[in-house]
Amino acid sequence: MDTIFKRRSIRKFRNGEIDQKKIEKIIRAGMNAPSAGNEQPWHFIVIRDRGKLEAITKVHPHSSMLREAEVAILLCCDVTLEQYEGFWVQDCSAAAQNMLLETTDMGLGSVWLGVYPIKERVDGLREIFSLPENILPFAVFPVGYPGEEKKENNRFDPARIHFDTW
Amino acid sequence: MDTIFKRRSIRKFRNGEIDQKKIEKIIRAGMNAPSAGNEQPWHFIVIRDRGKLEAITKVHPHSSMLREAEVAILLCCDVTLEQYEGFWVQDCSAAAQNMLLETTDMGLGSVWLGVYPIKERVDGLREIFSLPENILPFAVFPVGYPGEEKKENNRFDPARIHFDTW
Lengths: 166, 166
Fold this sequence. Notes:
Two copies of one chain form a homodimer.
Chain A: H1 2-6, E1 13-14, H2 20-31, E2 42-47, H3 50-59, E3 71-78, H4 88-105, E4 113-114, H5 119-128, E5 135-143, E6 145-146, E7 161-163
Antiparallel strand pairs in A: 1-6, 2-3, 3-5, 4-5
């Protein structure tokens, strides 16, 4: 699937409006991820407020590109929705990967800004977005028109493939 | 992206050979996932040995479809490759989602059989595949020609979308 190989981390953005329909398409892809027992523990905060985007850069050390991004999506988990203990991170990661692929497929760019399990980032995001106790911020995804071009990256390494045993 | 919506958990398989090139394509997709600091901590064990597939069903309670599957892939993590503490689960989950999408795109079926962090499954898999201490079994993916047809599932829930704050 071409999109899997085209997807690269985009950290520079150029101007260009991104309407809510496009953002909804990305979130829709996230929501169609598999989850343990189909528990679907995710929530999504769409961020267009420039003050909030700026505030994130103060609590997340690798997020300065949010100043250039048209919009960002904060993926959160409602831990009370978890039915299979310890699996929510996997659910949200699968949703995240779907979001990145859909973004790429639409000609937009994004990058996975890890939040959980780093305490300072979790606490910082919780404060900015007034998250209740049961909502954990998982990762932030800036979304914008790519301001950098990156070639497909071949990460294939046959040494990582084993047959029938280690 | 259609494939994201076509992907469903396939637990019934029909006969049909799956050559190594196809399996390599699935693994290649997994290896192209993003990872924290590009740490790429993953390893893949391709399992065709019927005895090993049967052995997994004894330690994993939801894996009986492995008896029907032509082949399976065990996704593992080499924890010594982790550069950003606590992020390897997210890396492997993104790889897993790429694998499921590539499998779907090829007209094959699979399902994410969670292993980590359930201790009995981790220990059981470790023994079957003689995994060294630093290698953690993460999840198993049976691969086969779908023996069941599942319609696209609309999981979209606008109540999970928020704007600029909780």
